[in-house]
Amino acid sequence: MSKPEGAVSSMEEANSLKNLINRMRKHRSLIASLASLAVIAAGIISYFLLTLVYETSTKILVNQSSAEKGQLTNQNLQANLKLINTYSGIIKSPAILNQIVKELNLEMTSDQLEDDIYITNEKQTQITTITIQNEDPAMAVEIANTIVDTFENDNKEMIKLDIRTKTALLLLAIGNNRRAV
Q1: How far apart are CA 124 and CA 117, in angstroms?
Q2: Alpha helices, DSSP H, located in the chain
Q3: Are the C-beta atoms of residues 175 and 45 closer than 8 Å to each other?
Q4: For residues 36-60, average pLDDT
Q5: Residue 161, number of CB atoms within 10 A of its CB
Q6: Which tens digit of pLDDT belongs to each residue from 55-108?
Q7: 3-class secondary structure, 124
């Protein structure tokens, strides 16, 4: 009986595995040196080249004000959900961001600030999360709070909104991990 083509016997597999182990033993100092070098290089890169980026988030609940506050209809809810994209655009508009840059005396343009702002909407809710990334944790919190305050003050009259904010949470992120918008 002949073996099918390409079949390897267990004896050949054992010999092959023995050869691999022997080669690894023979070159263990080289393998250890390369692993050590990789760890040292990663440490140097993370310490000297990567910048710590802090991230803070604040959540806002946006409702349309109405004379009949007690009534929440499906139509009102759907209208609110559709308006959330509009609110996101307003929050990231140059008018709002220029005010924030000026108010906080930031050394950046509104376009640079916009790159640090991420707005997400929780599915089928009226909750919008505004996330800010910055190298200074206190500044990230200050920017998030100022965005909400500025948005509320500038647009409350225009679009008749009730805005409720939740305390910003501060998280540490390592490296320049920036999400695409």
Answers
A1: 22
A2: 10-26, 28-44, 74-91, 94-103, 110-115, 137-159
A3: no
A4: 90
A5: 18
A6: 999 888 766 655 445 556 677 666 766 777 778 888 888 888 999 999 999 999
A7: coil
How far apart (Å, rounded) are the C-alpha atoms in residues 8 and 13?
7
Residues making up the chain, counted from first to last: 181
* CB < 8 Å & 24+ apart, contacts of 101-109: 103/146, 103/150, 104/139, 104/142, 104/143, 104/146, 106/143
Please state, as a whole number, how many other Cβ atoms lie within 10 Å of the Cβ of residue 148: 20
Q: Three-state SS for 47?
A: helix
The CA-atom distances, in angstroms, between 27 and each of 15, 18, 22, 30, 151 are: 18, 14, 9, 5, 63
Extract the tokens encoding 108: 């950046």
